[in-house]
Amino acid sequence: MFLTTKALVLREVKYKEADKILTVLTEREGKLTVKARGALRKGCKYGASAQALTYAEMTLFGNAGKWSINEAETIEQFLGLREDISALALGSYFAEMLEAVSDEDIPNPELLQLGLNSLYALSRALYPAAHIKSVFELKLMGLCGFEPQTEFCPACGKQPPQDPVFSLNGGSVHCRSCPPGTAGVSLPVSAETLDAMRHIAAAPPKRVFAFQIPDAAEKQLADLAEAYSAVQLERGFGALDYWKSLQVR
After folding, report:
1. Is the pLDDT of residue 61 over 90?
2. Mean pLDDT over residues 78-102, rounded?
3. Contact 229, 97 (CB under 8 A)
4. Which residues pair with 172 in a beta bridge?
5. Residue 249 pLDDT
């Protein structure tokens, strides 16, 4: 059978001499593993579309549960990422996270949209990289069922929580003097950080990055978003470690 779908290439692995095995996130079929025969050969018609962090329209051939590219046309290469090693590393982190949370053969167009919007903003430097990263992480957690609860303290019901802190394990903001409900680390959150978290949860896709907060709150949001996603996904990411190493050079 043939399937024509738009897809974001999350990962590429060389296979044999001239082929690649791609992990792609599609709008219709969720995450798929796809063979790109001859993608490494000079003159391959779809070679440009078979690169990591490329968005393309692909016609796939499926047989016995296995997929291969029949033809493909590039829609967006996010060229700004390929001109900046730091941006490329952060984009690769986004791809690693998307691969980790997406499921084979289960479509989730909101995940794909978040990935595309984040890569677009990053490749064109529409916002500071750390800002884009924080938004991506928190929005991704929301799409995966871990949207932070920020309106009231789950222990005492106070709205808003007094002297608030955020429970990384419980995913909720609670009063500093109240028990978190779930054992684990809680981080302080300012009013500005809470406002940003609420904006990220509620804003439409094209407006999710469009907010400004003081530098101290931006740093607090970045620390919280990274720590929260790491706790909820229970794993680390190599591309994130590399991106962070570039920030201290």
Report:
1. yes
2. 97
3. yes
4. 149, 167
5. 63
Dist. CA 200–CA 245, nearest whole Å:
27
HEC per residue, 142-181: HHCCCCCECCCCCCCCCCCCCCEEEECCCCEEEECCCCCC
Q: CB count, 10 Å around CB of 56? A: 23
Which of 29, 28, 32, 48 is CA-nearest to residue 40?
Answer: 48
- Determine the straight-line distance between the first and last CA of the chain, rounded to whole angstroms: 50
| Strand residues in the chain grouped as ranges (E) | 2-15, 19-26, 30-36, 55-63, 66-76, 164-167, 172-175, 186-188
Q: Tokens 């709150």 map to which residue?
A: 217
Output the six-digit token pair for 126.
């529409």
Q: Is the pLDDT of residue 145 over 70?
A: yes
User: How many CB atoms within 10 Å of residue 158?
Assistant: 14
Tokens 């394990």 found at: 169
Query: Which tokens in the block code for residue 81?
Result: 């990422």
Q: Environment class of residue 236 by beta-carbon count within 10 Å: exposed (0-12), middle (13-18) or buried (19+)?
A: exposed
- pLDDT tens digits, one per residue of 148-184: 999 999 989 999 899 999 999 999 999 999 987 777 8
Q: What pLDDT, on the 0 to 100 scale, is given for residue 59?
A: 94
What is the value of pTM for the model shown?
0.94
Q: How far apart are CA 198 and CA 194, in angstroms?
A: 6
